[in-house]
Amino acid sequence: MDDARSLGGKHSLMLHALIVNQDGVSASVLSELAQSESYSTNVVGSIHDANLQCQRQTPDIVFISGVLPDGRATEWLDHVKRPAPFDIVLVGGNLAPVDIVEAFRRGATDLLLEPVDRTRVRYLLRQRRTRKTENLAHIAAIPSNIPSSHKAAIIPESTAQMSLLGESPAMKVLRHQIERVAPTEAGVLLLGESGTGKELVAKTIHAKSDRCWRDFLPVNCGAISPQLIESEIFGHEKGSFTGADRQHKGYFERASGGTLFLDEVVEMPMDLQVKLLRVLEAGTFMRIGGNQELKTDVRIVAATNRDPEAAISEGRLRLDLYHRLNVFPLKVPPLRERASDIELLAQYFLDELNAEHSTQKKMSETMKNSIRNHHWPGNVRELRNFIQRAYILSEQSLELFVPDRSLTHAESKQLTLAIPLGTNLADVDRKLIFATLESCGGVKKRAADILGISLKTLYNRLEEYNRSGKQLPRMEESKIIHATNLSSTSSSALASNAVNNLRPAKVWCRLPVRDSGLLN
Q1: Residue 380 in 3-state DSSP?
Q2: Contact 344, 136 (CB under 8 A)
Q3: How many CB atoms within 10 Å of residue 228?
Q4: In terms of DSSP bridges, do strands 39-44 and 15-20 run parallel, antiparallel, or are they unpaired?
Q5: How far is CA 154 from CA 19, 129, 169, 203, in A?
Q6: Surface-to-core class of residue 439, CB atoms within 10 Å of its CB (0-12 exposed, 13-18 middle, 19+ buried)
Q7: d(CA 88, CA 111)
Q8: Which residues neighbour 500 within 8 Å (Cβ) at sequence distance 6 or greater?
Q9: Are 243 and 231 in contact (CB under 8 A)?
Q10: Which of 26, 23, 68, 30 shows the shortest CA–CA distance to 50?
């Protein structure tokens, strides 16, 4: 059957349901409902027969009784390939709670009590059909120039997962490391610049793990207000603080059994890092305002675009938490280190837009050369946005040059700042921030990327300077600052990070004459 052609009608895609149940009444009801939803069906009464049927035809959904003549459903679940290629619905009227919990831990995706609820069964069958249809549509949209060996590794939840494609050595290493660590329970720390696809890597790890049937919950630690982050992570009880008009379950509670992705973990407040460490070590936590310890079973994948060791030296990351998170570090390569993948990704993003809008636009050779020569400081995210912009502005042939070459990543590495020996560290930080902002034309996101800090950290620094009266000077009269080496004895972690990104002078930094402390 051609799955690609079968996506049209509501029930044009034939799926298969396997019913493992010795109760003739329940088995008959389940079979009837599955057939009414255009599923083919097989009914067996034992684990042995279920294994034989799975070998003959892989089902899309399995309804299995908790207890069977030759064993329990939990025993069969242990022998199912992970991740299972089908939904597994546990069926039983008198199952003990411990059996139900154990079944879910071993891969069951849902539970039906007997007598079965017909509406619930139809919902599960239609939910499986919808997911299968979306997955097939996603696979059909993958361009033909992508190797077939990669198609199986693409996570169907999001076409943005294509950032994991590529034949560059850096991507081959990353995929190999993901394959090794994903089936384990080890914590993973993702290191990489903004826009490299750290969240997509985290989703891939989750999808290739035994937890793939449970929730994947991402939380950006730098985007949540410090006053709210504890409530969001651990939850709160009704009445625990002003405005808490109901009980709220936090990320740890909702992600139990699955994976919790802590993005920009360095931005988490220090007092909350202590509580996070306790949860990771003991597996227990309490909601705000609560007095009962709750258990959680989550896998932590954390990420940061900063150097964690520098963050430790700055007092922004606890050393013990770093060691707890850094069980298996993974470096997500920037796009400039996988230059051979740029055109492949660009073509995929264009094919994606063509499929969405029923067009057949192509990239010109001029544009291909342009994207090959750009250094993509914004990485895959920048590339995708650029292709979308070029698509909108073009008719049939995409001719757009990569915009704003005034400060690409490679050029920014050549920018240099001279600071006299003896300058205190606070002033070094401030001057570096101001100089970088000036050279970036005031674009804070770009300045934060060059400095190796988060955007939130940059805003916090600027707010602190504003309170102290040390505002960013205006570009009235300017003078070129020539390159000299910055003494390592006078640089803080931030200064070291920024200076590593700003080396020998080619693109010069324009700073006001009146700020003579920066001049030789």
Answers
A1: helix
A2: no
A3: 10
A4: parallel
A5: 30, 19, 18, 11
A6: buried
A7: 9
A8: none
A9: no
A10: 68
Beta bridge partners, 248, equal 236
Q: Say if residues 305 and 194 touch (Cβ distance below 8 Å).
A: yes
Phi-psi region of 62 (alpha: psi -120 to 50; beta: other; left: phi over 0): beta
Q: How far apart are CA 194 and CA 305, in angstroms?
A: 6
Measured distance between the N- and C-terminal CA atoms of the chain, rounded to whole angstroms: 75
Instruction: Assess contact for 228 and 268: CB atoms under 8 A.
Output: no
How far is the C-alpha of 129 from the C-alpha of 131, rounded, in Å?
5
Q: What is the pLDDT of residues 27-79, one digit of tens each?
A: 999 999 999 988 989 999 888 888 888 878 888 999 998 888 888 888 888 77
Predicted pLDDT of residue 403: 52
Would strands 188-191 and 299-304 be described as parallel, antiparallel, or unpaired? parallel
DSSP 369: H
3-state secondary structure of 248: strand
Model confidence at 294: pLDDT above 80: yes
Burial class (CB within 10 angstroms; exposed 0-12, middle 13-18, buried 19+) of 472: middle
pTM of the model: 0.52
What percent of the chain clears pLDDT 90, i.e. is strictly above it? 16
Gap between the Cα atoms of 204 and 199, Å rounded:
9
Beta strands in 21-86 (DSSP E): 39-44, 61-65, 67-68, 71-72
* Contact between 253 and 236 (Cβ < 8 Å): no
Q: How far is CA 365 from CA 249, 400, 470, in A?
A: 53, 11, 49
In this structure, is the dihedral angle defined by the CA atoms of residues 263, 265, 271 and 276, taken in order, positive or negative? positive
Q: CA-to-CA distance for 197 and 431, rounded, in angstroms? A: 31
Amino acid at 479: K
Cα 396 versus chain centre, distance: 33
The DSSP secondary structure of 264-293, one letter per residue, reads: TGGGS-HHHHHHHHHHHHHSEE--BT--S-
Omega before residue 83 within 30° of 0, cis = yes
Q: Which of 4-8, 77-81, 124-128, 182-186 bottoms out in mean pLDDT, i.e. has the lowest?
A: 4-8
Q: What residues form DSSP beta bridges with 216?
A: 259
Please tell me whether residue 465 adopts helix, strand or coil conformation: helix
Helix (H, G, I), strand (E, B) or coil at 503: coil
| Phi, psi torsion values for 12, nearest 5 degrees | -75, -15
Cα gap 22→50, rounded to integer Å: 12
Task: Count Cβ atoms within 10 A of the Cβ of residue 233 and give its class: 0-12 exposed, 13-18 middle, 19 or more buried.
Answer: buried
Question: How confident is the model at residue 312, as a pLDDT?
Answer: 93
Segment 118-123 mean pLDDT:
87
User: In this structure, are residues 60 and 136 in contact, taking their beta carbons and an 8 Å threshold?
Assistant: no
Cβ atoms of 265 and 304 within 8 Å: the answer is yes
3-state secondary structure at position 18: strand
